[in-house]
Amino acid sequence: MILVLATGNPGKKRELMAMLEGFPVEIRNLSDFGPIPEIKEDGATFDDNAYKKASLTARYLGFAAMADDSGLEVAALDGAPGVHSARYAGDNASDGANNEKLLAAMEGVENRKAAFKCVISIAVPTGQALTYEGSCEGDILREPRGDKGFGYDPLFFCPELQKTFGEADLEEKGRVSHRGRALTEVRREFDKILVW
Ligand code: ITT
């Protein structure tokens, strides 16, 4: 079975490729195909966006597709940046700009609780689709630590690892992360998907 990873985010791609090792699939990336029409991530939830990215990619390319919609929900900011995590500091904002905006919003804030959320959707061209969720709780630091990972990783302290995701290697992060947990659910049900 060919499975297209429907993401343009190199950080996600690296993690998903590592987690999918041993799955009975041939992985393809969007870059293996010509340009595909832009998919607007205008859903109100991670579920909506993940399903939209997976189903439209599967239909357009004619192969099974896996999409990940994810983000950081900060308790003191009423769940922001949430579904807007990639574009918190504006369209095409860099990870650095998003992190700076988060630090500014959290200045003087005592409650640092936050959770990463991930919804993975797998869809096939004939229309079937399944979604899986994972989350990971932690705290937002007052300054970044570590240069591994991507996005908000250097600001996210993970109590289970006693370090930030920016200080964790791929395997450590994958064991406890929102994405790792969603993938564990995928692995559990993958037989279902293989017979579609
Ligand atoms: P694709 O839609 O092409 O997959 P994207 O980056 O636009 O890429 P999302 O809309 O799902 O994807 O936004 C996810 C954002 O949430 C991402 O850009 C990061 O800012 C943040 N994020 C998600 N998972 C993360 C992780 O494991 N570590 C750090 N930041 C993460």
Automatic annotation (TrEMBL):
A GO CC term assigned to this protein in UniProt: cytosol
Molecular function terms, GO-annotated: dITP diphosphatase activity; ITP diphosphatase activity; metal ion binding; nucleotide binding; ribonucleoside triphosphate phosphatase activity; XTP diphosphatase activity
Positions that bind Mg(2+): 69
Keywords: Hydrolase, Magnesium, Metal-binding, Nucleotide metabolism, Nucleotide-binding
Cofactor: binding comment: Binds 1 Mg(2+) ion per subunit.
EC number: 3.6.1.66
Family matches, as Pfam families: Ham1p_like
GO BP: nucleotide metabolic process; purine nucleoside triphosphate catabolic process
Cofactor: Mg(2+)
Catalytic residues, chain numbering: 69 (proton acceptor)
CDD domains in alphabetical order: HAM1 (cd00515)
Highest taxon listed in the record's lineage: Bacteria
Keyword hit for Transmembrane helix: no
Enzyme class: hydrolase
Catalytically driven reaction(s): XTP + H2O = XMP + diphosphate + H(+); dITP + H2O = dIMP + diphosphate + H(+); ITP + H2O = IMP + diphosphate + H(+)
Residue numbers binding substrate: 7-12, 70, 150-153, 173, 178-179
HAMAP family in UniProt: Non_canon_purine_NTPase (MF_01405)
Subunit structure: Homodimer.
Entry-linked NCBIfam families: PRK14822.1, RdgB/HAM1 family non-canonical purine NTP pyrophosphatase
Function of the molecule: Pyrophosphatase that catalyzes the hydrolysis of nucleoside triphosphates to their monophosphate derivatives, with a high preference for the non-canonical purine nucleotides XTP (xanthosine triphosphate), dITP (deoxyinosine triphosphate) and ITP. Seems to function as a house-cleaning enzyme that removes non-canonical purine nucleotides from the nucleotide pool, thus preventing their incorporation into DNA/RNA and avoiding chromosomal lesions.
Membership in a protein family: Belongs to the HAM1 NTPase family.
Protein's recorded name: dITP/XTP pyrophosphatase
